[in-house]
Amino acid sequence: METKIAIVKNLHKDIEYIKEAANIIKNGGTVVFPTETVYGLGSDALNEEAVKKIFKAKGRPQDNPLILHVASKDISSLVEEVPNVAQKLINKFWPGPLTIILNKKDIVPDVTSAKLKSVGIRMPEGEIALKLIEFAETPIAAPSANISGRPSPTDVERCIEDLLGKVDYILGGEKSRVGVESTIVDCTVDPPIVLRPGAITIEDLKRVDNKIELDIGLMKKPTSDFKPKAPGMKYKHYAPKAKVVIVSGNREKTIEKINEMVHYYISHGKKVGVLASKENSMKYKEGQIKVLGSILDLDEVAHNLFESLRSFDDIGVDIIIAEAFEEKGVGIAIMNRLKKAAGYDIIES
Ligand code: AMP
Ligand code: MG
């Protein structure tokens, strides 16, 4: 398949690219586009055949539902009912990195929701995404624009790497501001439950309704009788080609343990990468060091996480040793993605 690539540098000057991409969506094609969380791979959410193309391009399991991207806070045509708390969340956090799960109307096809009665919906904040949805005049179903299982792309180059020749159009723009996928809140239950942590933190959500809690299924490795509630969260995910190991514990011991491990692997002929905080990065003696950001600025760490994992693949490391970050605020989302990338391989220093 031929893929057209167009980069939007200036929204006004390059608006024709967005219109062209929107026409592809209208005609049942697939378009990669930037959002503030990660890049998405979209098609007309209400067109079954168009939605199937997304699953095919990504190699995504059929039982993993897609999120609908909308350009308006009025979602009454898509869902049965918007409960009070969901409306409050929408008013407070849209446009932004928050997905709300509600019971769907029949207009949303079963392929889009992976046969669930509910559907996830989000209004992204970026101008390119919003214009694309407006011009397409339909909600756009869009998972992250990567081959299934790989770390999500936060810039257009990574989308090209994964999806060139597999989609109709790649619309580039700026780097994703947030860097991890949206927070997902299931509002089909009362009180609502957080199915996936993201940049909108549990503390932010509790300010709207303090009964909102995290799905306990997110906390440890999924097993046959202990699964996260969001179908997609059970898969090994966000994984670079290299093996990932997380080291947690107090600062001094973590540095010592990581130095020990790096030395061991290098002496056994392996190429080793270290995902480090800015504060600790100077203390590592060997290996390729990538700084994720300061422990005092977890937004920066989230922003750099997926790109750092992918750039270790570029240089072909065999093993990535990652420092654990504090599971507070956006740190919950960072550790959720890191643990999944590591297949829950965590060492206490
Ligand atoms: P992605 O778009 O790749 O970030 O994946 C979407 C995530 O949203 C997956 O983890 C899905 O399982 C989850 N999701 C989407 N729709 C629903 C739904 N109706 N109920 C529960 N989880 C959902
Ligand atoms: Mg994804």
The rounded distance between the terminal residues' Cα atoms is 49 Å
Computed structural class: alpha/beta
Q: What is the helix content?
A: 25-40%
User: What order do the strands of the largest sheet run in, or round the barrel if closed?
Assistant: 1-8-2-3-7-4-6-5-9-10-11
Secondary-structure element string: EHEEHEHEEHEHEEEHEEHEEHEHE
Give me the number of helical elements. Answer: 9
At CATH's second level, what is the architecture of the largest domain?
Alpha-Beta Complex
> What is the count of structural domains?
2
Could you tell me which ligands this complex binds, including any ions or cofactors? Answer: adenosine monophosphate, magnesium ion
The CATH superfamily of the largest domain is known as DHBP synthase
Major sheet characteristics: 11 strands, mixed
Structure report:
This protein is of the alpha/beta class. Helices cover 29% and strands 19% of the residues. It is built from nine helices and 16 strands. It has helices at 15-26, 48-58, 84-93, 127-136, 156-163, 202-206, 251-267, 298-314, 331-341; strands spanning 4-7, 31-33, 40-44, 67-69, 98-103, 118-122, 140-141, 169-172, 183-186, 193-196, 213-214, 243-248, 272-277, 288-293, 319-323, 346-348. A hairpin with a 6-residue loop joins strand 9 and strand 10. It is globular, with a radius of gyration of 20 Å. It starts with a strand and ends with a strand. Residues 64-65, 67, 101, 113, 116, 118-120, 143-144, 181, 184, 195-196, 230-233 line the site of adenosine monophosphate.
